[in-house]
Amino acid sequence: MANERIAMGINLRQNKITGNAGYGKYYPEVDVQKTLSLRGFAKHMTDHGSVYGRDLLEGVLIKITECLPELIAQGIPVQLGGLGTFYPTAQVKKDAAISSIEEMEGLNPNDLVEAIHIRFLPDTSKLDNISGKAFKEACSLELRNIVDTQEVTLNGKVRKMQTITPIATAVAVTRAGSASSTSSNNAGTGSNTGSNTGSDSGSGSGDGGSGSGDGDLMI
């Protein structure tokens, strides 16, 4: 029996960039969870039926974290099986371009390079393709929350506050608000009645609907 895939959460965030073509629309982003430590990763491997104990796996992983940067620092890309390849790239300093061959004499490369970055290129072979659309097929996606970030001032300091509202809650609140608004408009039409006294009375009233969503608050 195949193992059930644990879903990857997809949140929606509203575009608040004024003047942008997508302003006001909601766009997906991954609901990134808490980062797993190296020890936690080793335990995860052990729990998946590895014949090796956590201590041994953790030791191997630690050695990888030591040796991989050492090789990349020498300009040597490292391929890890069907996972992919780690390789270095150079970030060029602003206005560091060389105009002629003559300028290269006695040149110090540190005057040209701002930083060296370790990049990762996922495997794209037919057997182990884990890139882009192919990797999406290995994931089970589910919609989760509407995420919003606002700047607030706390104790004189400006901080970013993030609110998380379950999409199901937001949809339910919006529908309830729309239904209450429609009911209010219909009730406001009033009614007229006649009696033997010859008096007419007309009345109309309506309560508007309102809604709010509770979300987890993180700073």
Shape: extended
Query: Which range does the strand content fall in?
Result: 25-35%
- The whole-angstrom Rg is 30 Å
Q: What is the count of β-strands?
A: 10
What composes the largest sheet? 5 strands, mixed
- Helix-strand pattern: EEHHEEEHEEHEEE
**Strand arrangement across the biggest beta sheet:** 2-1-6-7-10
Low-confidence stretches at least 5 residues in length (pLDDT < 50)? 191-219
Arithmetic mean pLDDT: 84
What's the helix count? 4
The share of residues in helices is: 25-40%
Structural class: alpha+beta
Distance between the termini: 42 Å
Task: Give the topology, please.
Blueprint: E1 8-14, E2 26-30, H1 38-47, H2 54-72, E3 78-80, E4 84-92, E5 113-122, H3 132-136, E6 141-154, E7 157-166, H4 167-187, E8 191-194, E9 200-203, E10 216-218
Parallel strand pairs: 1-6
Antiparallel strand pairs: 1-2, 3-4, 4-5, 6-7, 7-10, 8-9
Describe the structure.
This protein is α+β, with helices and mostly antiparallel strands. It is built from 4 helices and 10 strands. The chain has a 5-stranded mixed β-sheet. The protein has a 3-stranded antiparallel β-sheet with strand order 3-4-5, with helices on one face. A hairpin with a 2-residue loop joins strand 6 and strand 7 (157-166). 2% of the residues are buried. The model is unreliable at 191-219 (pLDDT under 50).
